[in-house]
Amino acid sequence: MNSEDRPRRRPGLRLAVGAALTALAVISVTGVAVADSGTSRAAVSARTDAYTRDQIGDTGIEPNPSGLPFWASPDIRVCTTALGCASDQPLTVGGTAYVFVDINVPGPYGTGVSNGTLNVYYTVLGGAAQWPADWTPIGAVAVPASPGVTTVTIPWLSVPDDGPAPGAHFCLLTRWVSPTDPMTFEGPNTVANTTANNNISWHNLAPIPVPANSSTGTTVPFAIGNVANVPTANDLVFGEAADRHFETVGGKVVVDLGGQLFQRWQQAGARGTGIRAIGGTKIQILDLTKARIAGLTINPGERPQVLLTFTAALPASAPFPITVTQFGPGQAGAQPTDIGGVRYDVTVVRG
Fold first, then answer.
1. Cβ atoms 79, 73 nearer than 8 A
2. Widest CA span of the chain, in angstroms?
3. Residue 29 scores a pLDDT above 70
4. What are the distances in angstroms from CA 204 to CA 182, 185, 216?
5. Which CATH architecture group holds 3-203?
6. 42-56, 60-74, 111-125: segment of lowest average pLDDT
7. Does residue 195 sit in helix, strand or coil?
8. Does domain 208-349 sit in CATH 2.60.40?
């Protein structure tokens, strides 16, 4: 492809990030290594393009044209050892985890080795997250990304507790910052930033072990945010895999909205589909294929956590992917869209 034939990227401003690397980062490269000590100054400053995928099949086009969720990047994995893992593993509060990130080169807007800094951040599991206010740095490392796939490993020391729910459950965000690979200007909406920039990926996947025949099950958070800077009405929409139905193992999901959010939901008409209130501030999900809790008012600056409790009767070896997606306006006056979600990979284990 000639350079004239490449898709043109929307102009943007570069953002420099000064997050310091807190521990040793491990880098591996698969593909063609490019090195030439005689490279001219013009070649050194030539346009490069490294990208991380938002979905399988993502080739780095901006803005991302896919209709699939943008918050489940396949290029990010969280593992319990530096040896890596095929899929995310549960985090331990106070322990060390390892974040693996695959950087792909070249994307559609440049060629050659891309020199930059990979930045990794976390926030509580949930939907809409304000950039940068809701994100906390994990670490950063400067690395050359050569043609092929460069895998970077960043240790995450002293994994924190996530708050009201026991355990550690977090969303991750990665940003590739390079002087030869500029980004489109970033606003407060993390989904909008992710779709506009192939340098940014969001990873909201959580492995959730649930003990069989437990009356208490496993409780995890879902934070509901506001990226519009005006009060907004938001829906929580549930889903599950077409071939993996949680009810086949006696699975149940109960959502505790908490006092303030439950009161707001009632004042808005207690609307929803495939749900029922079961007392106090709790709502049972009756049908994961179509359940929706509608009309949750979130004010600017708020990101309250609702609590999801999973219970099941029978153990199962394969996980049940259950999604919760926040639909709301991405800016003042806009129509509701997907502004973030989580895939909970629920595995029912013997109690």
1. no
2. 72
3. no
4. 25, 23, 24
5. Sandwich (2.60)
6. 42-56
7. helix
8. yes
